[in-house]
Design goal:
Layout (H helix, E strand, L loop, with lengths): L1 H34 L3 E4 L4 H14 L8 E5 L5 H14 L3 E5 H7 L15 H12 L3 E3 L8 H4 L4 E4 L27 E4 L7 H11 L10 E8 L2 E4 L13 E6 L12 E2 L5 H10 L4 H5 L7 H9 L4
Parallel strand pairs: 1-2, 1-4, 2-3, 4-6
Antiparallel strand pairs: 5-6, 7-8, 7-9, 9-10
Length: 310
Amino acid sequence: MNAMTDTSHFDRLSNQHLDALEEETIFILREVAAAFERPALLFSGGKDSLVMLKCAEKAFGVGRIPYPLLMIDTGHNFHEVTDFRDFRAKELGAELIVRSVEDSMARGTVRLAHPGESRNVHQSVTLLEAIDEFRFDALIGGARRDEEKARAKERIFSHRDSFGQWQPKAQRPELWTLFNTRLQPGEHFRVFPISNWTELDVWQYIEREKIALPSLYYTHKRDVVERKGLLVPVTDLTPAKDGEQIESRDVRFRTVGDITCTCPVESTAATAADIVIETLAADVSERGATRMDDKTSEASMEKRKKDGYF
């Protein structure tokens, strides 16, 4: 009886916590719609953007989301994710805009050091080009402060100058959820409604709201090799190197991005509830455990963000 009472009390507290996070996110999404003329919601088809989209659905209703969804596609994304992105946008009746790094390469604004180089970092160029094309004045992103240190420094309403750059030492105060949204011509904001969520919060919310996700987030068999402490998926873009042993393992992705820099983790978690339990035991952030391109210093990531990265 006591155990049942304790469980009920925990569930009640958890729901109150999720309700507060949801309420804050909905408030921010509505604030963006009210304060800006040409906002867009960055939508990759990943779990964080799907949580934001669920909150937007609650904030405005199906078919009534007042800003388009924007994806910057490297051309090396998992098809399970891009297919789900298209499905979810159509299901909600939302406008979907896709701009590709490959188009920037064709224009000559992105040049790779070599054909096998990850295109992930180059998304910032294509993003800035899309901002210029559509004259977006606010972009809503799914970054969270718990992901890594450079992201933790950002305000919820993060100002970008006319070059699309972020100045960490010139951020505006955000006291009592009062947001300064003044812009000069050519400037824009990056807005992060789920800044205060954690990976655990996201998965608890996915479980509670029964949010559908791309299948990659759950356990499946995949050929991988061990490389520098990571499980690297064996694909045409990321083949095994000489001397590496290919193994078929039960894995899932904690985060999904460009194939060339995203790694799975070993897991048999088949449901959101299973992943909640795994997340409680995790001692490494999702990006630290799964992103080859994030094996960099805090200063390096901060520089990428100053230059326009997500």
